[in-house]
Amino acid sequence: MKRNVRLLLAVVVATTTASCTPPEGSSAIECIAPAGPGGGWDRACRTAAGALAELDLVPGAIRTVNVLGAGGGIGYAHVVSDRATDPNVFAGASPATTLRLAQGQFGQLTVTDVRWLGAVGAEYGVLAVRADAPWRSASDFIAAWRADPHSIVVNGVSAVLGQDHVKTLLLARAAGLDPKSVRYVPFDGTGDALAAVLGGFVDVYSGEESEIAPLVEA
Question: What's this model's pTM, rounded to 2 decimal places?
């Protein structure tokens, strides 16, 4: 099986942010990525860590810790509930985080429980399929989706009604489909989600361009 995918359609612009207050004189700093390795939050942590080190704003290395579950909710609950007074921790975030907080999907957590620092990157959200998928263009895919919505399964790393799901629902509505007909399966990590697509268990991956680009180039 060829280990690559095709970019099918760019759908939405996403900005990745990180929130932190790096302490002085500490060498045990952690960035919590509230999802699996290789995803946007993981890259947000690693990018922020590199920038902070390059600017000599923190001593020593910053360790990225992946805390999976609930579309980011487990990681954020860990930071807010267990480490609220810990000056050695910050967390990767994205518009998906803002959306989930605004929806009240993280239990009692709200936007006032965190402090936003700044943007470290921006990218396009995408839908991607296997290189040997039957659709050679976005138009082909939309036509097949309209003909039989229940035959196509989409996955992503956002929970139900999270960003990856919502942008798929927006595309479905723009295509004249009933959003309720969209079959979406949430995964906790980008690697597992893409493996499901490459293995033929899921038809379409809803994610970000930077996650797909290395596989397309391969």
Answer: 0.62
pLDDT in tens, 56-73: 888 888 999 999 887 778
Count of beta carbons in the 10 Å neighbourhood of residue 177: 16
Strand 62-66's sheet: what is its strand order? 62-66, 29-33, 89-93, 5-19, 118-130, 204-208, 153-156, 183-186
Place of tokens 């293995």: 199
Alpha carbons 122 and 106: distance in angstroms, whole number: 24
Please give the C-alpha separations between residue 47 and each of 75, 110, 123, 142, 211, in angstroms, as whole numbers.
Answer: 18, 25, 14, 35, 14
Show Cβ contacts of residue 180 under 8 Å, excluding neighbours closer than 6 positions: none
Q: pLDDT for 176-190, tens place per residue?
A: 999 999 999 999 888
Q: Tokens 């700044």 identify what position?
A: 118
- Here the tokens at position 56 are 């000599």
